[in-house]
Amino acid sequence: MDFRESLTMAVKTLTASKLRSGLTMLGIIIGNASVISMVGLGEGGRHYINEQLQSLGPNILFIVPGNRETRRLGGLEISRNLVLADANAIAEQVPSVIDVAAENTTPGLLSFLNRNANASVIGTNPAFITVRNFTIGQGRFITDLDLQRTSAVAVLGNSLAERLFEDQVPLGQSLRINNIAFEVVGVLELQGSNLGVNYDDAVIIPITTQASRIVGRTSPYGIEVSFISATARNADSMQTAEFQITNLLRLRHGIVNVEEDDFFIQNQDTLLSIADTITSALTLMLAAIASISLLVGGIGIMNIMLVSVRERTQEIGLRKAVGASQNDILIQFLIEAIILSAVGGAMGTFLGVSGISLLSLLTPFEASASISAIVVAVGVSGSIGLFFGVIPARQAAKLDPIVALRSI
């Protein structure tokens, strides 16, 4: 019996029991769809995180209070001696840096007429808009003069401005933050969220005004900041800037030993590398979990094929009696198993790609179907069909034709 005849017979046999064949393929369909969807979700998450980190600004460094060990242990007893004066010193004394922004974030209650909103109140300096690569949509940003005078001026995030002022023009309006009047001087373009802060739903004020009117002086060393962000002159200056900032802050804070550091510096490249490592591990874990359903689907194929061998004992006996060899019977059942897994794999691939497309439409993740994931999923499903089809195929091939014919 040639291959074409075996293939034709296998197709006829499977289509004769459509419901059973469909249920047999279900495990493979779900497995393929799960693997492709999970890998696509992981890739979408990786792209999303990378975009968020890159949107922080080019060639950016973050100086954060507390040393790495303290942060690793959960942020307990983090020192509070990173202050505005440190940011000013970096801007003035580090030649490899072009802009420095200090930032301190506190919660606040905002009100305008009869409308109220809880939002993040961000105290910062004028360089913030440049360092963070933000854009002003209306009005202006805070200035050095606002900092010097501790002016009660505010720049609103785009979504917050729409919530509080609706159809009214926010510029020049009086807004109350924690019951203190501020004049709205600007509105940001849509920015999205990063570093855990949604800047579209935040209000930005001079950091000196925040310290004197909103939170008060919380550090004995000056105006406390949550972190400092600095822009290096170019990508090649990143390591130089990190080295110079480290030496300057150790000198200012009186630190002699590295173990005594009360700050640490994180650059954008390191953050991207960490994010890639984490998301790649999560993607692999999700794919491994989803692959379990492929194994279950393979076991389902084996079980159904074993049942099929029992039901088709007479057919096998007749075929052997008229001259079919063991190899003919073996190939016949192997083809049936491979068809089940291959068709299930194709249907699962279509379902997985459709799920990824739907995910991209409904979420901010730009998920995409990975060609490698599709190839691997289909290849694995086909291999599973071949592997789990071998046992029932060999059992069928070894049937004694005399014993099989006696059951007629």
What does this structure look like?
- By secondary structure, the protein is α+β, with helices and mostly antiparallel strands.
- The chain folds into 2 domains: 3-51 and 274-406, no CATH class; 80-261, no CATH class.
- Helices cover 57% and strands 18% of the residues.
- The protein has helices at 3-16, 18-54, 68-72, 84-93, 128-131, 144-149, 158-165, 207-215, 238-253, 268-311, 313-321, 326-362, 371-397, 401-406; strands at 60-65, 97-112, 115-124, 136-139, 153-156, 174-177, 180-188, 193-194, 197-198, 202-206, 227-232, 263-267.
- The strands form 2 sheets. Strands 2-3-10-5-7-6 form a 6-stranded mixed barrel. It has a two-stranded antiparallel sheet with strand order 8-9.
- Helix 4 (84-93) packs across helix 9.
- The protein is elongated.
- It starts with a helix and ends with a helix.
- GO terms for molecular function: transmembrane transporter activity.
- It comes from Leptothoe spongobia TAU-MAC 1115.
- It is a multi-pass membrane protein.
- This is ABC transporter permease.
Write the SSE topology.
Layout: H1 3-16, H2 18-54, E1 60-65, H3 68-72, H4 84-93, E2 97-112, E3 115-124, H5 128-131, E4 136-139, H6 144-149, E5 153-156, H7 158-165, E6 174-177, E7 180-188, E8 193-194, E9 197-198, E10 202-206, H8 207-215, E11 227-232, H9 238-253, E12 263-267, H10 268-311, H11 313-321, H12 326-362, H13 371-397, H14 401-406
Parallel strand pairs: 3-10, 5-7
Antiparallel strand pairs: 1-11, 1-12, 2-3, 2-6, 2-11, 4-7, 5-10, 6-7, 8-9
Helix pairs in contact: 1-12, 2-10, 2-12, 2-13, 4-9, 10-12, 10-13, 12-13
